[in-house]
Amino acid sequence: MFNKKLQERIEELEQKNKCLEEAFAELEQKFRNLDGDLNKDLGRFNNTFDKRLVEFSKEITDKYFSTLERILRVHTESSLVTALAHQVNQKDLNNLKSSLMQPFLEARWENEKKEDGKKIINKGEKIIEERNRLYADMLQREKQGENIDKIKEQLKGFDWILGEIK
Amino acid sequence: MLIYDIAFNGTTAAGAYSANTPKLVSGILKQIIIEFTTAGVTFDLAITDDKNLTVFKTETTATSKWRQEMNIPLKGIHTVAISGASANEAFTGKLMFQEVN
Questions:
Q1: Residue B89 C-alpha, separation from nearest chain A C-alpha, in angstroms
Q2: Confidence band, pLDDT 50/70/90 cuts, at residue A86
Q3: Model ipTM?
Q4: B76 SS3 class
């Protein structure tokens, strides 16, 4: 009786053991598969990363050389100017500087003149009013026997401006 | 009797024009003539003395060609002024004076 039960128990355990072995084998297979997939993904990731790294490196190198070229060009020009500066006297150097500045200054003055011109046009009404006021003042002063030569000269200026505008 | 005229020509601006006479010593204003080149221009005329007193003013608005006779003694510099002109136009005119001793 006891042996039979023992035998049954042993068979049961063997059965379970067999199940466990199968389960283990299955797990092992799954692990092997996973490993393979992981390696493939890692490989793809490495390729992409390497490609991006190479592109980035090229970009940085190009920028580096472009900046270096600009620095060298400016350095050459400034060295040239310095060399020239040592060979000319101060007066000629000042003349050189002012002749180099001349186009910029002239452009600036031209712009200022245009801006001032616009302001004059905007104040046209006031100019007309002032001219009329001055004229009435001149008539009054002349009647009083005062000298009006100065006012006449001022009026000439106003009339010229108004003549040009009209 | 000495008769002389003072020319009064110009172009109105903003409907007005004014000018001074020379210094009048002893003259009587006998006649004023104003003629605008364009017909139909209406205007007023006034004469003021050196103290800004109005010695003459048109009673009614004048039109284009205007002429008036008068007997006004004037002394010193006077301002002859056109005002309220209905157009900015050129005009010619004169003031006729009789000088008295």
A1: 16
A2: low
A3: 0.78
A4: strand
